Structure formats: C-alpha cells, structure tokens
Amino acid sequence: MPKVLVTGGAGYIGSHTVRLLLSQGYDVTVVDDLSHGYRHNVPPERLNAMNICHTAALAELMRQTRPAAVVHFAAFIAVGESMREPERYFANNVGGSLSLLTAMVQAGIRHIVFSSTAAVYGNPHATPILETFPIQPVNPYGESKVMVETLLRWFDAIHHLTSVSLRYFNAAGADPSGALGEQHEPETHLIPLLFRAIMTGKPITIFGNDYNTPDGTCIRDYIHVNDLAQAHILALEHLMSGGATSQFNVGTGTGHTVMEVVRAVEEVTGKKVPYTIGARREGDSDALVAASGKLRQSLKWEPRFPNLRAIVEHAWGFAKKHY
Ligand SMILES: NC(=O)c1ccc[n+]([C@@H]2O[C@H](COP(=O)([O-])OP(=O)(O)OC[C@H]3O[C@@H](n4cnc5c(N)ncnc54)[C@H](O)[C@@H]3O)[C@@H](O)[C@H]2O)c1
Predict the structure, then answer these.
(1) Domain count, the chain
(2) Given the CA of residue 38, which atom of ligand 1 is nearest to it?
(3) How far apart are alpha carbons 83 and 310 in whole angstroms?
(4) Whose Cα sits closest to atom 26 in ligand 1?
C-alpha cells in the first residue's frame, strides 16, 4: 500500500486520519512537534517529533521514507489567538507550509492534501456556501489558510505539485472506539466546552440568541471527524491516480443551532448543561453551512455519521473517560 507522510498527525483530526489510514493498509509516517498534539495519539514507531519549519530535516525524512503523498494538518488553529498574535499564525501556518512544500520539491514528492477551512469565506453573503464564493477571510487564521492555498496554486503551476485543499466546516465527534477524541488546549469548540460545563458545573456562555435563526442561536455545520478523515483518503486517491489540483468544502450540508447542540448533549449525557446567554461574538455569521455537492460528486464522499446525535455520542464516549 502507498506510503503517506502526515504532518500534525498527533492532533485531533490528524490522529483520526492516521488511524483510518492505518486501518485501510496505508504505511504512515507522522511528523508533529507535539506543541498541541499528544504522543499517545500515534503509534510510537510512526511518530517523528519534528517541527515542519525545519526544511532540511523534513526533506531528509522524505528521502528516507519516500512517501507517495503528504497530508498536511500541522497548524495553529485558534481564531481569537490569531487576532492577538498574527505573527505566530503567519510564521507557523504559512512559513511552516512553505517549508514543507520546499522539502517536498527537494525530495521529489508530488501530491499534498491540505487542511483548509471554511474561515476562508469569512462572512459569506449566502448559505449554503459554494466553493466558488468570494474568498474574504476576516481573521489572520483564515488568511493564513488562503495564503497556503495561493502557495499551492503556484507550486502546481511551476513544480507540478498537485494538491487538494479541504475546507472543513466544524469538525466534531470522536472515533467510535473511544480511543481518540478532541482535546484542544485551550478548547474553543462547542461540544467539548458543553461537556466541560456539565463536568465542572461552571456555566458556558452562549454568544448571542438574537441571530436570524429559528431559535436565535448561530447555525453551524458539524461534521464527524471520521467522515472528515475519510475525505482525506479519497482526496489522496484522487491525487495519486492523476487527479488535478482542486478545492472542496467538507461539511454535511445540514446546519444545527447552538441550542440544538445543547439539547443533543443533554439527551446523550442525561445531564443539564449549565449556560448563560452572553453578547454576540464579533464577526460571527447567522449560519455557516457547506454546499457539499462537489465533494460528493467528484470524490464519491458520503458521511457515515451525518446525525448530530451520533457525533455527540461518540464525543461523549471519549470525553467521559478523558476530561
Ligand atoms: N478543528 C476544526 O474544526 C478545524 C476546522 C477547520 C480547519 N481545521 C484545520 O485542521 C488542522 C488540524 O486541526 P486540529 O483540530 O486537529 O488541531 P490540533 O491542534 O489538534 O492539531 C494540529 C497538530 O499540528 C501540530 N503542529 C502545529 N504546528 C506544528 C509545526 N510547526 N510542526 C509540527 N507540528 C505542528 C500540533 O502539535 C498538533 O498536533 C489544522 O490545520 C486546522 O487549521 C480544523
């Protein structure tokens, strides 16, 4: 089976993808500096604790392992932090990606699947969001992903390095085995924060209930992390069989309000979520839902866990043991 190099494979989405790749017979090498990932998320013999900014070391690892393709998750991911420290986000997300692409060219590796984000669309004029909507990020995190998509266009034009940029919506859930799950520090994602509120009794603040949605709370598109992982494998197959550079939204196409997620968490856990309603968060849109037709048609992707209930059940399976 093909060899694949995964950057950021010790993090949340990366570790689920590594597990799925291994279960489908791929030979996986992980590069992660463990700045936000966990050693225990990856089989020890697969892990190289290395920063992707070290171009020469990366190129040497690629020459030794000869991967057919790279899956690139390694990045800083907190939108709010990127508004306070943009330099760190551009250095790590853009500088790190440029280093990785440079190493790939030096080692002759020709394909990459890149973790992009719905944040590249900023606050779009309509929803569901098509890949052809204007690219207009509203924070340095989203801008850093746009800049990498731009690098990828030029590396294809000049070095014939083909890529798939997957623009994820809200990754959520956990491996059904309970062995892997979401453990960001700091945590900014809704479902783990709802679990924390239940466990600590400290109310979570819901940012606004006067949006133009059925219950006034924001609508987002929650996608199960294993369905997201499978999209990477289909993207790899597309590139390795000669497919062209492309960009795809990865979401289910169905949105849920924050209050729907609160209710799902209460049903699954059997506990009340303590919460307060706070002010709107600057820059939040009413609804962000993916148009996922391009991914479904071109890569034959179908979510196995499209229901919010399954996403919350799997997330809870992990959280109750690990938080
Ligand atoms: N979680 C989401 O909902 C979401 C949504 C859209 C896009 N994304 C993107 O998906 C990717 C993975 O997100 P995640 O939620 O798994 O985050 P995560 O923080 O759990 O994983 C990122 C991993 O990259 C590693 N890393 C960071 N900088 C590195 C560097 N310079 N060298 C080596 N390793 C480095 C970290 O240690 C961590 O293990 C990111 O690129 C993120 O921008 C995530």
Answers:
(1) 2
(2) 39
(3) 33
(4) 74
Residue 182 in contact with ligand 1 by CB distance below 6 A: no
pLDDT, tens only, 110-122: 999 999 999 999 9
How far does residue 32's CA lie from ligand 1's centre (Å)?
10
Q: In this predicted model, what pLDDT tens digit does every residue of 272-316 receive, in sequence order?
A: 999 999 999 888 889 999 999 999 999 999 999 999 999 999 999
Name the DSSP class of 291.
-
The answer to whether position 32 is within a domain reads: yes
* Ligand 1 centre distance from Cα of residue 185 (Å): 12
Question: What pLDDT sits at residue 67?
Answer: 98
Residues 126 and 16 in one domain: yes
Residues with active-site annotation? 141
The Cα–Cα gap between 200 and 63 comes to 48
- Whether the CB of 122 sits within 6 Å of ligand 1: no
pTM, two decimal places: 0.97
Q: List the CATH number of the domain containing 311.
A: 3.90.25.10
Q: Is 117 in the pocket of ligand 1 (CB under 6 A)?
A: yes
- Percent helix / strand / coil, the chain, rounded to 5: 45, 20, 40
- The rounded Å distance from CA 235 to ligand 1 centre is 18
Neighbours of 217 (CB within 10 A): 22
Instruction: Check: CB of residue 265 under 8 Å from CB of residue 273.
Output: yes
Q: What is the CATH number of the domain that holds 167?
A: 3.40.50.720
Q: Quick check: CB of 55 below 6 Å from ligand 1?
A: no
